[in-house]
Amino acid sequence: MIDPVEEWFDAAGPRADELRRVDALVREAAPGLDRQLVTAGSGQVLGYGLMPYRPRSARETTLWPLIALAAQKRHLSLYVCAVVDGEYLAEARAARLGRVSCGKSCIRFAALDRVDAGELAALVRDAAAVTTTGQNGYFTS
After folding, report:
1. Model confidence band, residue 100 (pLDDT cutoffs 50, 70, 90)
2. Residue 26: pLDDT above 80?
3. Three-state SS at 101
4. DSSP conformational letter for 66
5. Checking CA distances to 132, which of 40, 49, 81, 82 falls within 20 to 30 Å?
6. Residues 6 or more apart from 78 whose CB is under 8 A from it?
7. What whole-number distance in Å separates Cα of residue 80 and Cα of residue 65?
8. Would you give the DSSP letter of residue 86?
């Protein structure tokens, strides 16, 4: 039987190796988070640490990952769904991450070599820690 996560990596074509490198970083930084494919829009992302989440516009609670990895047309996206004291961790630490573009919870980069891997691992570790202690405002707001 073929592993669906491996199929997802392989389907990314030339981005597969970079996705695997980011996956290894996330898994090492937050080994307690489960990992599985999650439907997002018309595709899938690799999600870590599914949490109950209810967007303001939704009527029902769903499950959404604390961390999500996606291959876009020109870059990779790592979503870090962590808010502490009203501040998105990814956005707050964007300047420390290297050659990236950041939104509130999305970190975009062409290759992991352009990212400060130590800072990215610390961000993932901290997001997992604040979630474990109940301080993550992303899932409680």
Report:
1. very high
2. yes
3. strand
4. E
5. 40
6. 22, 26, 67, 68, 69, 106, 107, 109, 120
7. 9
8. T
Q: Which residue has the tokens 């595709």?
A: 43
CA-closest candidate to residue 124, choices 39, 36, 22, 51: 22
Please tell me the total number of residues recorded for the chain in this structure: 141
Distance of alpha carbon 135 from alpha carbon 73, whole angstroms? 34
- Give the pLDDT mean for 29-52: 94
* Tokens, residue 136: 């993550």
What is the C-alpha R_g of the chain?
14
* Pairing label, strands 76-80, 83-84: unpaired
Outline where the chain has alpha helix (H): 4-11, 16-29, 89-92, 117-132
Q: What is the pTM of this model?
A: 0.93
- Residues 77 and 83: their CA atoms lie apart, in Å, by 18
